Amino acid sequence: MKPRGLASCSLEPGAAWRKKGWARITVRDIAAASGVSMAAIGYRFGSREALLTSALIEAIDEWGTRLGRTLSAYGSEGASAAEHYEALWAAVIGSFTEDRTLWLATLEALVQAEHSDDLRRYLATGQAQGRRGLAALLRGTSEDDIDDATARSPGSTQLALFTGLMTQWLTDPDQAPRAPKVVSGLRALTHLVRSEV
What we know:
The protein is mainly alpha-helical. The protein has a domain at 53-189: Tetracycline Repressor, domain 2 (Orthogonal Bundle). It has 9 helices and no strands. The protein has helices at 13-20, 27-34, 38-45, 48-74, 81-98, 100-112, 117-139, 148-171, 179-193. Helix 4 (48-74) crosses helix 5 (81-98) and helix 4 (48-74) packs parallel to helix 7.
């Protein structure tokens, strides 16, 4: 059964997995936190993974909206493209600390997806949305304006950078690079891909 959006029901699994972690939370935990029966959860979502994945994708989508507002407040007037890009990564990196449980749940879900085809499909859909969303943030435009080629190339590259930074910040924040180092590191790599004249 395909999960519906959580806005249409009273379930709040996000709070439960933030407290207990993705891998350890049970349907019983979610039912107790939400005051609904386990049977109702099964009927509405089909599985624990479907419910949790729906909650995770919605939480990440809400995070993307907040990030977009933060960057809009920063503004681009008077800022170079490089400064705007650095501001983007400063905001993203800040969220690895502020929203730590969200990103830990993402990593836990990726590991669990090895054992669940349904979960893998749901996460693949979420990654496709993530590519498009990051490309839109990069371009300063709406996701509707991002074509498939842009989502697959710049969007996928940004998602790879995002995932790598996330794992570093979650495991060793003292050594993980901050936004200025990310930008300078990318500059140092540009000669490897620069077209020869």
